[in-house]
Amino acid sequence: MTTAKRPTTYSISELAKEFDITTRTIRFYEDKGLMSPERRGQTRIYSPADRTKLKLILRGKRLGLSLEESRDIIGMYSPGQSNEQQLKTLVERIRGRKETLEQQLHDIEVMMLDLQESEQRCLDALRELGVETV
In CATH, what number is assigned to the domain containing residue 26? Predict the structure, then answer.
């Protein structure tokens, strides 16, 4: 039984396909200084470390982190180290994001109650006027 060996380098189109994003997105992250692949002429050559950075950038995006926050966290990574500070910072950012989302959820729930009450008052007023409502 053979196992597929990971390539040692990747093209921009290979990474785009793997992560289901556009090559333009990858170039955007490069422009923002989040990735810096090797170049052979006009061709970008991505290392496994670049692939990992891209994976972390996209994970950070899904978690609601800004690109700056992702850059800071990725920049803390040191191969062969415990990366304790990186992990603590990530936990802190995750907790902050959760607090923000919990507040937004509360605000949405309050707004939904206000909308329901307003809708009901309008429907009651229409009924008092003898207007049929749907």
Answer: 1.10.1660.10
